[in-house]
Amino acid sequence: MRTRRTQEEYLAENVFWVSKDARWSYLQANAKQKTIGKLIDDAMLAIEVNNASLKGVLPKDYARSALNTVMLGELIDLISGIGMGEEVDKSKDILGCVYEYFLSGFAGSEGKRGGEFYTPRSVVRVLVEMLEPCKGRVYDPCCGSGGMFVQSEHFVEAHGGRIGDIAIYGQESNYTTWRLAKMNLAVRGIDADIRWNNEGSFHQDELKDLRADSILANPPFNISDWGGDRLREDARWKYGVPPIGNANFAWLQHIIHHLAPQGVAGVVLANGSMSSAQSGEGGIRQAMVEANVVNCMIVIALPGQLFYSTQIPAGLWFLARNKHPGHGWRDRRGEVLFIDARKLGHMVDRIRKEFSDEDIAKIADSYHAWRGEPEAGSYEDVPGFCKAASLDEVRGHNHVLTPGRYVGMAAAEEDDVPFPERFAALRAKLEEQFADSETLAANIQAQLDKVAHAR
């Protein structure tokens, strides 16, 4: 016989308590009422009252006159058709997928602004598969809608770990985006300490004493109005004072500052951060390389169309506080692994590209093999894709970390066709194209003559 569970029992299991008049079944039953907007607003307020972590987070403007109540009711009926099931974990997963779907769609419609709160799922998966955040503190100083945390939790579950083995921390300066993150985590039942203030992580670091085991971040690219002129003497700038006009190296140093002694980080930045020399950025990058925080770092060139916010290629920086990994892994101090992933991925629509599972595995497996991790297999350089470069090689390139400088060209595929046959075929093709060109030129000239005679 099924017993009725109390509110305290739900909250003890980190499951949100929802009163009867705030439950979906109640809203669905009243979806055709003209007051459905107010009923939704009241439901949101009731959920916040019963769940303190959501206070001030949920929207409560569905009763506004500009919102069509008929369409609102139809939307409720449409979503009601999604089978949630009785299992709490299954329902949370479905709700989470629905939420991520809408986030993704909204980011696409917002264009450049969409990239401010949403990092494409396949990019996040690359970060997570590389860092493998199975336990400890996971931190994102510019967490957007919380996608890094969701994928970290998925990784733990997929590898047989316990969700309670990781503790999640984040900060966001945009209030609306912070609310999106709180809701994204809430519908999945993920407990997290996500802070908000409009000053941001540079000027009001809400978690200044936090030292994280894993940091995953997608900071805004090349931000120029970050207030760097007020932070010239900041203790975080261990490798050099970042330029006032670009926050890229401020983000990198802020992240290193928050790493635990054995911590690792994966950071998405504009490609230019790997080669820029203006305003002292080259000197900061050199200092990072020579101080060895770069020796356990991987740089990956990503296709530009993976992002809503930019059409230029982006890079993933992987940093480690302690260069010697331990755990029986190979000592890779004095090396940097470069991976060029620009040729990976497939177009999912006319402007966006995503990595497949195979693409992500190819990238992550190369890294884990290079690290010498157990069961990862042996590492080998692959021309055009990956290269383990020595520190002397990096110095030879003036500490520029663009992967293309190191990985070289992919080996040409061998062709069994004899050269005479291949040459004859190419010549025939060229002659055919010359003939087509002459025909096209004649047709264009004829049309021009007709226009001239018509006048």
CATH class of the largest domain: Alpha Beta
Outline: globular
Mean pLDDT over the residues: 82
What is the domain tally? 3
User: Could you say which structural class the secondary elements and strand pairing correspond to?
Assistant: alpha/beta
Number of strands: 11
Low-confidence stretches: 106-117
> Considering DSSP H and I runs of 4 or more, what fraction of the residues is helical?
40-55%
Percentage of β-strand residues: 5-15%
Number of helical regions: 15
CATH superfamily of the largest domain: Vaccinia Virus protein VP39
End-to-end distance = 93 Å
Oligomer class: single chain
Major sheet attributes: 9 strands, mixed
Second CATH tier, the architecture of the largest domain: 3-Layer(aba) Sandwich
* CATH topology (fold) name of the largest domain: Rossmann fold
Rg (C-alpha, Å)? 27 Å
Q: Give the strand order of the largest sheet, numbering strands 1, 2, ... along the chain.
A: 3-2-1-4-5-7-6-8-11
Task: Write structural notes for this entry.
The chain is an alpha/beta fold. It has 3 domains: 7-81, Ferritin (Up-down Bundle), CATH 1.20.1260; 106-407, Rossmann fold, CATH 3.40.50; 418-455. Helix content is 40%, strand content 13%. The strands form 2 sheets. The chain has a 9-stranded mixed β-sheet. A two-stranded antiparallel ribbon has the order 9-10. Helix 6 (121-131) packs across helix 7 and helix 6 (121-131) packs parallel to helix 12 (357-371). The chain is globular and about 85 Å long. The termini are far apart. Residues 106-117 have low confidence and may be disordered.
